[in-house]
Design brief:
The complex is a heterotrimer. Chain A is of the alpha/beta class. Chain A has 18 helices and 12 strands. The longest helix of chain A has 27 residues. By secondary structure, chain B is mainly α. In chain B, helix 1 runs antiparallel to helix 12. The chains are: A alpha/beta, B mainly alpha, C mainly alpha. At the B-C interface, helix 1, helix 3, helix 4, helix 5 and helix 6 of B face helix 2, helix 5, helix 6, helix 8 and helix 11 of C.
Amino acid sequence: MKKTKLLLLAGSLMLTSALAACGSNNGNGSASSSPSASVAESPSASPSESASAETGSGKPVTLNVMTNINDQQAKVLEDIARAFEQENPDINVEFSAPGAEYENIMKVKMASNAMPDVFSTHGWSKIRYADYLADLKDEAWVSQIDEAIKPAVTDESGKVYVLPMDQDKSGPVYNADVLEKFGIAVPKTWDEMIQAAETIKTKSNGEVTAFHIGGADSWPIGQFFDFFATPAFISAEKNNASQFLDGTFDWAQFDKLPQMFLDMQTRGYLNKDVLTAKYTDSAKAFAEGKAAFGIYGPYLIDEAKKINPNLKGGLMPIPSIAAGDQPTLAGGEKSTWGVWKDSPNLEAAKKFVAFYAKPENVAKVATSQILPPGLKGVTIDAGELTDDFEQYKDLRVIPYFDRVYLPNGMWDVMCKNGQDLLAGGITVREYSENMKLEYERLRSAQ
Amino acid sequence: MSRIAGRLLLAAIVALHLVPFYLLLNLSFKPITDTSSKWRPSEAFSFDNFASAWTEAHLSRALSSNLIITIGAIVLVVLIGSFAAYPLARHRTRWNNFIYMLSISCLIVPGLTILVPLYKFMVDIGGMNQYWAVILVQVTFALPLSIFLMTGFMGTVPKELDEAALIDGCSRFSIFFRIVMPLLKPIVATLVIVLGVQIWNDYQFSVFFLQKPSVQTIPVALSGFITQYHSNINWVAAGCLIAMLPMTLTYLFLQKYFIKGMADGAVKG
Amino acid sequence: MPSSPAIERTATKTAANQGFVRKYFQSASALNLMYLPALVLFGVFILYPLAKGVQISFTNWNGYSQDYAWIGWKKYELMFQDKKIITTFKNTLIYGLGSTLLQNLLGLAYALFLDRKIRGLGFVRTIVYMPVIISPLIMGYIFYFMFQYDGGALNDLVVLLGKEPVDWLANGPRAVWIITFINTYQYMGIAMIIYLGGLQSISKEYYEAAQIEGAGWLSQFANVTWPLLAPAITVNVVLNIIGGLKLFDVIVALTNGGPGYASQSLSTMMYNLYFARQDAGYAAALGNVMFLVICFISLFVLFGLRRREVRA
């Protein structure tokens, strides 16, 4: 009973709409006004909606701001953005921190030439993002840029690519309690580090892992190669730096680095699940004292402290390999703001960046990253790492290997082949061969 | 005897299927500092993770984005899909067979090969961060399945019904609206359930097209909790449970129509 | 048109048009107008970008810069030199065909088992269906916690039984099957529901007739259930094949295609090439090949099964 009534109702509704459609068809005799026409037309309805208002004072402006940074550090950035809005009521900030997909989103945006007004460059301002960044050389804060970070964010012609709020000074980290427990001093050379690993392995009966690597995420493997390529090929007096740059490097020489990595595994210095553990597992093992070293930067300590707030972690320089060489730190940009050169809100964007260059804001950002500030005259409290930074302040800071000596795009090859190497899929020789192939492909494409 | 065995088997099946949900639920109640076995129930039975996920990911806002996009897209998918399916099911010419195959091929197109051109196109038409644009994209990608299922279903609606109406002087279009459409209820329930979930959970497209925080959907909002150096999987677990709720309710509400209705439609045929 | 100067002529023409139009709308082919909206959407949002994607496959584009060079078929040739491509194709087929087989066997078994009017079965059906509602990415994370070596839920049980923990995902082929299993677990609910619908559409009279003839359970299944379930089978098989061959999220969350490249599918390989390796040309070439392969397999299966339906 009820059902038929419903059917009738529905039917009559349908009929009226069908009749309505008929009516319009009779009207102009054209077929295109089928019920769906409105749908098909709508894509072209508002082509110019996305453009923001011009920057003239008084008119409200919306800035699109994007960063790869997330979690607590992103909150610090966003809070500063809100303070900026308070001070500039006519500028509206749309702050987004998309997380893991950031780099891919930016690539798609570059391809479409539709960048955010302000964005972070996570180490790639001069290489990947160079063509999209406005020159910031006329900004007031430029004179304040710390000498150490200057080469990473400026070039010979004087172009300033981004505002560096902090600077990366990175090396492996260690769990201080674990080292103390086994009576190990922070290693300065590769041999000392391997010695330490052996001690930890035997003394702990394999309970404590010397190096925990979250290999399933693949980038932690790349981190090993990126760190240790520096002492292996760059930092020593006799080095291959220029050969990497001019393309004459003999890749047979590269074998020693994957060999070092493989040896760590065969000797049992790596976690058993190196192929299936993730970065978060590294943080957990590190927090629980089940791992002595992390071949990551200080961020590992930060992440591990979420799990174990009492953790005592320390930063160490990258041990040297060649005799007579000294340890180094890996350096480069970390938290930055760049301005899109075609931004319709160029002035507002620069104003936004300048706001972050204020000493108190630089301090906030650098503190959240536990890294030295990128501008002079700012001091921060790096917590327990303060001593480390003080102790290593005279060490050489060498840029991350892949950012300077490899063509852009090699990172993944380094990571994935490392995985394959540990899984027994390829040999040390094949590792170098695969690197060579990709190195040559990417160089020729440039 | 066999009834008891059947009951036991049933209980075993249910238990087995619930294991991942137990792990998820447990994760969502545990604080990040709790690294005990995944099986051990959380001692601090707190809703902190839910509260954090809710506020940090702005889930109330994301929830409304999800609703707008999913409902908008589903309505269009059902309408446009049933329109398209009718001639394909009723008027089987060679050309229409080709159209049918073309529609199914669209189901197969790998999202990534078209991502960048699609993105460029979206920028050009001003569709970035716009609900209508994302809805249209979602509709387009849900349409092939809709057409596939609708065409199959309409095949079970007897042609004699149409022919009788045609003789009565109904136009072919009014046959569709007055006779065929009301019969589609069960397949519509199926589409709402299957495609609704797909659109609701979509990450691949949403993450690229909805970057503005105010229009972000839940999967995009939650993805901010996971990056290279930091992750908050406990929050993600909690957020995921929140995100599941509306879809679960929809399913519970529609499942009767879904199964029974499907049967009804076919029996009549 | 109506605004032309010769109003009268236009009027008569319109009348003639109207007649023609009316006739057209009465013809069966007028119905074809109804798929126009769908075609427009496909054209704009799929076919046009797809054509652009084909263009990209003939370049050495890195995926983001403004310049690139045309290099012809090179990226397609590259596929034949790629050592990983065989494993990747094999994995993709396992993901696709393996989960199709499992989902249909289990889905049908569950449907047969749960197709009774007993209280509580609705609850069981809901439980089996629930995983569909979770996003596959999250599902991958959950199962990572299940299979991880250190502190994984499964290894906790293994240790409880006094055995050595196993690094489940470290072995490539095993990881592939674990992923296939997860995909099956997640989506068998849909197969089950579609089969339930199919089962309930079979009129009881057929079974009664078979019983009168003294047919046992097995022959009832073979002679009544199986042939009449044909449409449900077609729908399920085609959906599962396409879904399985395109599998992406679970792989990313669980193994990221690793160890090395051992569990990667065409989808994850393409993603990796596009973004991480910055070889958009190769990624696009691979995508086009993948598209053709899946099209071929699924249309072949679809028409094969449709023919079976007709015969049944």
